[in-house]
Amino acid sequence: MIEIDGAAGEGGGQILRTALTLAMITGQAIRMVAIRARRPKPGLLRQHLTAVEAATAICRARVEGAAVGSQTLEFHPGPIRGGDYRFAIGTAGSCTLVLQTVLPALWFADGPSTFAVSGGTHNPAAPPADFLRRSWLPVVAAMGVDMELELLRHGFYPAGGGEMLARVRPASPLTPWQAPARAPAGKPRAVAVVAGVPVDVARRELARLQQHLGDMETEVRVLSSREGPGNALLVEIPLSAHGEVFTGLGERGLPAETVADRLARTVRGFLDSDASVGEHLADQLLLPLALAGGVGFTAPVLSSHARTNMAVIQRFLPVEFAVEEREGVVKVGVVRHALTVAGP
């Protein structure tokens, strides 16, 4: 059994999610303590419990400590099974974080799968659905993953009510991937999404973005008020290998111009670097690259979240992460020595 300290590093839910994913893939049991110990509300929240429940169903695991608020968990996995799975978080907890727990395991299942999850699709401090579909999916597809992702219904914090659907076919051995030098593949695109929010908010956000970032394609997307209230502002930078998606979320009392100003600073930080992937995509590529055997990428910065994730991955897989800061970017390389995946 692998012992995992949930208070290590940045001490958040990613430690749990990565440990669950790799326990399923490698067949190694885990015992995790101090779950989310560095968060204002430590222990399992609804979205974390849903990830545990989904992982349990996928590999018929034996589990102890699976309850809201629990700070200790034992997880004894069985073989990964394909099938049709559906889960509801029951709050606005992030659908995308649940998906990122189970999808890599389903790449190695004994048959095809569908996985539906309802909850939040555009949450603070979580990758939005658009990011998974436009940034993360093209890269893992280049590694050999055969998967589709659909956003069936938007779900904004705090109401939730969104839904996402994944279709997964078992992958052949994944192919190592080296991020190519950054090459633009079209004009930047900005989309302002409103649901139950005045459309003028979206127009003001887009106008302010253009003041900061110049000419770009723009779209106002008005959803049914039943999917709100909510507002998301998205910027996609099309690149040769993938799209970099950056997101700002509107909040009650927060001016539209402030949402656009904050997002523009994030986008400009990426554009002013020579990095091949953005900070958040760098976080999300560490596990697929470790499973595929590398090779790597450059990012504007490497977050403490990413460094913590590296430490967890190295507890399960015979990989090494090489990190080098140079010329205003961080170069990350992944070397895998050998990998044994639990069979069906």
Descriptive report:
A hairpin with a 4-residue loop joins strand 12 (230-238) and strand 13. The protein starts with a strand and ends in an 8-residue tail after the last strand. It has a 4-stranded mixed sheet with strand order 1-2-4-3, covered by helices on one side. Strands 5-6-8-7 form a 4-stranded mixed sheet, covered by helices on one side. The chain has a 4-stranded mixed sheet with strand order 9-14-16-15, covered by helices on one side. The chain has helices spanning 13-26, 46-59, 95-106, 129-142, 199-213, 256-271, 279-292, 304-316; strands at 2-5, 30-33, 62-64, 73-76, 84-88, 113-119, 146-153, 162-169, 177-178, 189-195, 217-223, 230-238, 243-249, 295-299, 319-326, 329-336. It is globular, with a radius of gyration of 19 Å. Helix 1 packs parallel to helix 2 (46-59) and helix 2 (46-59) packs parallel to helix 3 (95-106). It has 8 helices and 16 strands. It is of the alpha/beta class. The chain has 2 domains: 2-179 and 277-336, Alpha-beta prism (UDP-n-acetylglucosamine1-carboxyvinyl-transferase, Chain); 189-271, 2-Layer Sandwich (Dihydrodipicolinate Reductase, domain 2), CATH 3.30.360.20. The chain is 33% helix and 28% strand.
